């Protein structure tokens, strides 16, 4: 009888547990930290259980989520790219989390929370946010007597000196993130008053610089499909500089031995410029119960443990989300290059909080490719993209 009652009690406890289906994008090397956090969360409490599933990179996961939303098979919790968040909010797919976010740790960096707020509502929980870095081949720089460029003019000059018959000074991908970095660093934005701003002075200056470098043979342009080749160009010393998020280097290091010393430096930035905060957040999706939303926030709070945050930062090179983690990262941040790149968080801004960007960005990427790979004049390419974007929203 006692065993029967015990079994009933265990069954009742299992039935009371709130299950949270969770789709995430954390592959190697950060995936191991996330999996450990989930195991630790389950051991620390019995009220909630995450059913985690890896669904690919940001773009692949976004496509899968849209299909799941249409078919009614979406998860409760989604780990998605930041630029996806405003669209989920506009479609009322993301659950506002402000009611569940009382008594947050006082040492959370305010900018990190602003990155997940859209029109005054908190639609996500920051998990991994990064800033861009200028990666460069230290060996090639030493051979030419160069120092990391601090302005875009210095970068152009360095690319010219590094270029040879078999290698380019700089490699650029024609994706919206890389181009946004160039525009924001000049104090500009690709969106103004909720409308595409592709023909702004800053956007034109950025594309003219890239176009000039490609035409002179000092830069190699790669489209999004060729992004792996852009990395290969750098690793095979076919290019000596390139832009990427801070998180790019640990991924490469986990997969291959680097044949030269890699340097990293802050992105050249004008006085009024900013750098894009990119990365991903946890989003609670429409249909979640209040208990599931509470469980998602409880897991995020568990993830904010300073020691876990420190392990996450060391492994992925994402920015720490709270100041308490810095005490665990003193040796990591002693490296002067790493410290200077991470310090860009002071000028970090969300690179997109406009829902229409997910509709527009393909027109801009097409324009970048036409200009850099087909030779179309920058102003013509940007004007064409602007016209298509306005037509897409019926203007």
Automatic annotation (TrEMBL):
Pfam families: SBP_bac_8 (PF13416). Residues 1-16 form the signal peptide. It comes from the Bacteria. Keywords: Signal. This is ABC transporter substrate-binding protein. It comes from Thermus composti. The lineage of its organism: Bacteria, Thermotogati, Deinococcota, Deinococci, Thermales.
